């Protein structure tokens, strides 16, 4: 349909107004004024070690973190803790202060939250983040040989072919057992985090690698709660098929487990 020339400016104006109204309906503008509880939570971070951060939201939600080796990790963690406590239809969390210094502007425009994810449950995680597409088939017998060589002192990251395709499938994704109380592990570019018993036991690792055969090992681990060091931990990946996973603990190679490869960090709170 062709509209008369004199009507076209009115139609354009109406479309722009509708667009602005939609954008306004999907956002919340807030003059930052932390609640007493949010301020108290921020003040308590002054006694914590290493990098600290606190994130807040207009509805009163907050999350804080400390003990991290970088400010970026502290910020990411504080946002995740904050988002676990968000309410639908309210403004999203944002980083308020880092290492005791307020970094937030005086006024923020935030996206309205429509979904909140609280970790860790494999079914809820897959519904929120989706599953990883793609496939991989390992060589479990070869991977077990590599694990035995690793225990004997061989650096398999040097002697064995690197599993670039496997690492690409795992990176920035979470491998979870179907029973969320058992096992969940996130493979980040700069960290690896593992939760057992529904998150009651948390271990952070500083590095990881995968071989072409399917041996996946994490290094330099420590319990988040106590700082107690743990040794290298390895998995043997049998296969991934569009998010469906078959794997075994390298120390229990005969027990094949079924799980999900989730397209996100399922160990932390999230919102969208």
Please specify the SSE layout and strand pairing:
Elements: H1 8-25, E1 27-31, H2 36-43, E2 51-56, E3 62-68, H3 71-83, E4 94-98, E5 101-102, E6 107-111, E7 116-117, H4 122-129, E8 135-137, H5 140-151, H6 156-159, H7 164-170, E9 173-177, E10 183-187, E11 192-196, E12 201-210, E13 215-223, E14 229-230, E15 233-241, E16 244-249, E17 257-262, E18 270-271
Antiparallel strand pairs: 1-6, 2-3, 2-4, 4-5, 7-18, 8-15, 9-10, 9-17, 10-11, 11-12, 12-13, 13-14, 13-15, 15-16, 16-17
Summarize the model shown.
This protein is an alpha+beta fold.
Search tags:
single chain, 272 residues, alpha+beta, 2 domains, 8-stranded antiparallel β-barrel, 4-stranded antiparallel sheet, 7 helices, 26% helix, disordered N terminus
Please characterize this protein's 3D structure:
Keywords: Signal. The chain has 7 helices and 18 strands. A hairpin with a 5-residue loop joins strand 2 and strand 3. With 272 residues, the chain is α+β, with helices and mostly antiparallel strands. It starts with 7 loop residues before the first helix and ends with a strand. The chain folds into 2 domains: 109 residues, no CATH class; 150 residues, no CATH class.
Tell me the distance between the termini.
Answer: 38 Å
Helix content: 25-40%
Query: Structural class of the secondary elements?
Result: alpha+beta
Sequence of strands across the biggest β-sheet:
9-10-11-12-13-15-16-17
- Rg value: 23 Å
Largest sheet: 8 strands, antiparallel, barrel
Q: List segments where confidence is low: pLDDT < 50 over at least 5 consecutive residues.
A: 1-23
Care to count the β-strands? 18
């Amino acid at each position: 349909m062709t509209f008369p020339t004199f009507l076209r400016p009115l139609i354009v104006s109406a479309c722009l107004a509708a667009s602005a109204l939609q954008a306004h309906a999907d956002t919340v503008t807030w003059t930052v004024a932390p609640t007493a509880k949010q301020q108290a939570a921020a003040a308590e971070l002054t006694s914590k070690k290493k990098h600290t951060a606190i994130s807040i939201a207009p509805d009163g939600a907050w999350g804080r973190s400390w003990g991290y080796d970088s400010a970026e990790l502290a910020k990411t963690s504080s946002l995740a803790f904050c988002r676990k406590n968000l309410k639908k239809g309210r403004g999203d969390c944002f980083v308020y202060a880092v290492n005791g210094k307020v970094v937030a502007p005086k006024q923020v425009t935030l996206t309205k939250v429509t979904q909140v994810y609280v970790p860790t449950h494999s079914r809820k995680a897959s519904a929120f983040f989706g599953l990883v597409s793609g496939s991989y088939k390992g060589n479990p017998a070869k991977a077990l040989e590599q694990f035995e060589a690793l225990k004997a002192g061989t650096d398999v990251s040097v002697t064995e072919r690197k599993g670039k395709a496997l690492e690409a499938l795992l990176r920035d994704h979470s491998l979870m057992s179907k029973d969320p109380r058992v096992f969940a592990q996130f493979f980040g570019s700069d960290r690896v985090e593992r939760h057992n018993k529904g998150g009651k036991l948390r271990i952070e690792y500083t590095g990881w690698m995968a071989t072409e055969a399917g041996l996946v090992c994490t290094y330099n681990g420590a319990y988040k709660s106590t700082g107690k060091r743990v040794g290298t931990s390895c998995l043997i990946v049998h296969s991934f098929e569009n998010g469906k996973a078959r794997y075994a603990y390298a120390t229990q190679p005969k027990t094949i487990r079924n799980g999900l490869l989730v397209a996100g960090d399922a160990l932390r709170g999230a919102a969208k």
